[in-house]
Input
Amino acid sequence: MSQDKKPSPPTEPVLVSMYEKRKKIYAKGVRGFFDNWRIIMVIITQIAFYGGLWLEWNDRQALLFHLVERKFYIFGLVFWPQDVIYLTALLIISAYALFLVTAVAGRLFCGYACPQTVYTQLFMWIENWVEGDRNARMKLDKAPLNARKLRLKSTKFFLWGLLSLWTGFTLVGYFTPVDELINNVRTNTLGSWEIFWIFCYGGFTFLFAGFMREQVCKYMCPYARFQSVMFDPDTLIISYDPARGENRGARKKGVDPKAAGLGDCIDCGQCVHVCPTGIDIRNGLQYECIGCAACIDVCDDVMEKVGLPKGLIRYSTENALASKFEKKEILAHIVRPRILLYTVILIVITLISGWFLMHRIPLKVDIIRDRSTLAREADDGRIENVYMLQIMNTSEEAHRFKVTVDGLEGAEIAGDNEVDVAPAALHSFNTIVRVPPESGKAGANQIHLTIVATDNPEIIVREKASFLLP
Output
């Protein structure tokens, strides 16, 4: 007779965390070819952002997206809300450019020109200047709070705060004329939305670039999530060559690594120490990699010191690593149908948008018929309709516009048919169209109003309207 099994003792509940606890990353500084390019890109982007605010064009701010006036000034061009089609074209061009760059060279934009990367780099330069290199920062953070630590941290946060506020001020200066903004700051008359956006954008700059850093790239940036659909085996990515590097391990100077069964990687960990997102590139392609190439610079430096060829970590492709392609073969595989398609679409959209922009007529007209008086008989027996014309002069020059009418026999403008409109201005006025009563059928008849600049016949707009006959 079998004995009953004894019940097993209850197990203790195990707490499983679905989120990894953040470990602060102390990225080590590195110098090299790609770091020099990152510095150049930081300088270029920040000169464009901070310096573009102070450019002048025709005695006004050259780059100004004036929300109050609802006008966008870009050097000699003036855009109105009705020009939203050009914004759409710009977004499409930007999207295809991003697709093309990603398909060719992965997250190259992230590593060199993304605002998160750029401002993180600026904040890290301040941090290194105030607190010291990687080891000094780690030692400082572990040390108890004392006068020195308080002084260094306060100095760092103060400089971060100044840069953040200046960044917020600069952003708002593109939407409110900077001269007006400076005067508002001086007289303490800033508007509520200006105060909000200066501190909001400055605060998020301080938070993202100073504290969150790699977390923005890993958890908040959508580009990190959908980039994989734009990759393929011929996309250039930061790659570790395992065939050359494994088996990794330390070795004494002068020891032949092949005789010791070792690859070229000495397992120094420097590629991890310099990575701003804290990944180990030797584990293969990872979505956290922003393509900054800091690991390439530091690995090349290590290889040079130990007397081994550079390029253990390099820009390469999955196919190139698997098939051991040379540089010429890698470049040949980059030009593939997908890249050609993106390039052709990008060129076509850019050329079409550029052509329409160059041939844009700097005149917009809205015609609204007066609905309070549908039709009325004038003293001479003719029938007249009243229209309100809104003429938008989108150029930087004043123009005199003449209004004419056609579509019904004998139609003419009653009264003065010319009007002066200032540069980049909107002028509204009423105009009366008169026609003989026998010139059309009872009810709605189509007419056309033509508005042309008297000093430039190429600036002309022809709009249709409805004329009512009783």
